[in-house]
Amino acid sequence: MSTAASRTGFVNKLRAHLELLDPVTWISVFPCLAGGVMASGAMQASVQDYLFLLLLFLMYGPLGTGFSQTINDYYDLELDRINEPTRPIPSGRLTEKEALLNSIVVCLLALGTGIFLALSVGGTRGMIIISSIIAGLVVAYIYSAPPLKLKKNILTSAPAVGFSYSFITFLSANAVFSEIRPEAIWLAVLNFFMAIALIIMNDFKSAKGDEESGLKSLTVMIGAKNTFLVAFAIIDIVFALFAWLTFSWGFTVLMYVILVSLIANIVIQVKLYKDPQQGLSFMQHAVDDGFGNAIGKSDVQEHNAFLRYQVANNLLFLVNLLVAAGMVGVRYM
Question: Looking at the structure, do residues 48 and 93 belong to the same domain, yes or no?
């Protein structure tokens, strides 16, 4: 084999390993990490704090989230042959052994990063950080691996995702820079339930494969229309609780903004529920050309509708979340 061919083979293999870590999912943890840091009100413009921030993102992004994606692909090979045949393992670009090695490396790196941050911070905060990353890695494993395989049932799969991607990330980010703020716990809880609602709808894309393989997603159990209703109800409750919390914290103006966001969200939900195919069609351009690479694309009607909704909902929720986190942080400065 020529040197050029060997180099090309190495690059393609490296790309396959990177794709296995599913980089588009890394960004999903960033809002909670940013919110946790902002709510602390304690991060300084120092080399050390910027390093800690970088390590936080690496620990929960490429390493932690990457581990969960790799393990998911490893144990769901047969399912991916139906749902996502172009992924690295079913397409043959990586062997199962190579994928397993990938998961072991990123798991150890995530754990090592957590230990370093925990020792650097120390005390109760350090225990929160190391406990969180260990719990996140364990949940990521049992989410996809038998015999528990939490993803088999929506009653265990959605909370697992909310816990790993939203709850522990928010608290860990807060703990790196300060004692856990009481408001940060509430914001982490809101993110936990928002993640549950979104993962419920994200299962639209794999409904066919889930049904054939016996996985009990909510869509398989109650149908797409009813799944929309359940998810929308959770989201609206999250917004309502968010508004009440900001009022109790004395952020009256923000409370009104969140209530307006709730009303806008309900209007959008009604349009989408009535017409999943054309509802919120003005957001399709954002899905196809704007956020498409980050949130994904789909040919499944209900999932494509969810992607359009996700763009609108994320703007309404995340902007308010980060504003609230920032206001909490200012209070503790």
Answer: yes
Number of domains in the chain: 2
**Other CB atoms within 10 Å distance of the CB of residue 13:** 14
- Give a yes or no: residue 149 inside a domain: yes
| SS3 label, residue 278 | coil
The pLDDT tens digits along the chain (333 residues) read 466 666 777 888 999 999 999 998 898 899 999 999 999 999 999 999 999 999 999 999 999 999 999 999 999 888 788 778 888 999 999 999 999 999 999 999 999 999 999 999 999 999 999 999 999 999 999 999 999 999 888 889 999 999 999 999 999 999 999 999 999 999 999 999 999 998 888 877 766 777 777 777 788 888 878 888 999 999 999 999 999 999 999 999 999 999 999 999 999 899 888 877 665 555 555 555 544 444 455 555 676 777 778 888 888 999 999 999 999 999 999
Which amino acid appears at position 33 of this protein? L
* CB of 313 closer than 8 Å to CB of 234: no
Residue 266 belongs to domain spanning = 182-333
Say which residues have a Cβ less than 8 Å from residue 136's Cβ, sequence separation at least 6. 60, 64, 163, 164, 168, 169
One domain, residues 167 and 21:
yes
Do the domain assignments include residue 63? yes
Residue 110 tokens read as: 């995530």
204: nearest Cα among 278, 276, 285: 276
Q: Based on the domain organization, do 233 and 276 belong to the same domain?
A: yes
Q: How many whole angstroms separate alpha carbon 74 and alpha carbon 81?
A: 12
DSSP 3-state percent helix, strand, coil across the chain (nearest 5)? 85, 0, 15
Query: Residue 204: CB partners within 8 Å, gap ≥ 6?
Result: 219, 224, 227, 298, 300, 302, 303, 305, 306
Whole-angstrom CA distances from 105 to 12, 28, 98, 133, 195 are 19, 21, 11, 15, 27
